[in-house]
Amino acid sequence: MCGRIDLHTPAAEIARLFHAGPGFDAAAVKGGWNIAPARRILAVIAADGARALVGLSWGFLARWARDASGPKPINARAETVFARPMFRDGARRRRCLIPVDGFYEWKREGGRRLPYYFRLADGVPFALGGIWESWSPRDGDGQREALHTCAILTTAANERMAPVHDRMPLVIGPSDHERWLAGEATGDEDLARMLRPYDGSRMVRWRVGERVNHAANDGAELLRPLPD
Questions:
Q1: Hey, CA dihedral for 223, 225, 226, 228, is it positive or negative?
Q2: pLDDT per residue over 37-66, tens digit each?
Q3: How far apart are CA 112 and CA 31, in angstroms?
Q4: Catalytic residue at 105?
Q5: Which 8-state DSSP code applies to residue 32?
Q6: Of 2, 96, 133, 150, which residue is the catalytic one?
Q7: Active-site pick, 96, 105, 133, 150
Q8: Close Cβ partners of 79 (under 8 Å, ≥ 6 residues apart)
Q9: What is the DSSP string of 142-199?
Q10: Which of 75, 109, 170, 184 counts the most CB atoms within 10 A of its CB?
Q11: CA dihedral defined by 197, 185, 25, 218, rounded to 10 degrees?
């Protein structure tokens, strides 16, 4: 799964790296080293033939949901995302790139959950594959504004993740960004290739302190390596 991300690179730099112009809600997104579900996160979407940097609430709400109080999954399995009614329309038509500097995963040892940090070996921000949706309130719902939400896709673990967890977030390499955002125009062969685990040899991991277990904690010190 993917339940915590790190994006401390400034939004202006993310926009430059991902060739994205300004979009809805992006200015309201606060970066950090320990971003938890339900927070608004940055994402890149296709918009009018270009790319837009937007803000999405992390926790997916289907367009057809009766109200905003129901479950909001933070992850969707890449193997089933095109078949599940909750996700399939977003998976076909509204895919997004979720920029991160890295992400965390936890290894169970006895009664403890030991956190590990993962990023690319070259240290540059990269993209996780996501889907997004806009949900509008119905009359009498009590919710006044439209909600823009997202989920991060997950795949089987690669060799870098496997000693820690059996699932990992879907990583979309730069050469596939355009294809991922193309929605239904993406060919089946390209799509199947992108839904595979990312090359583990291009990633690094290290154990970090358990302060990251609490979403209220933030700061660069959370990335300090511990003996593995």
A1: positive
A2: 999 999 999 998 899 999 999 999 999 998
A3: 28
A4: yes
A5: E
A6: 2
A7: 105
A8: 155, 195
A9: S--S-EEEEEEEEEE--TTTTTT-SEEEPEE-GGGHHHHHTGGGS-HHHHHHHTSPP-
A10: 170
A11: 10
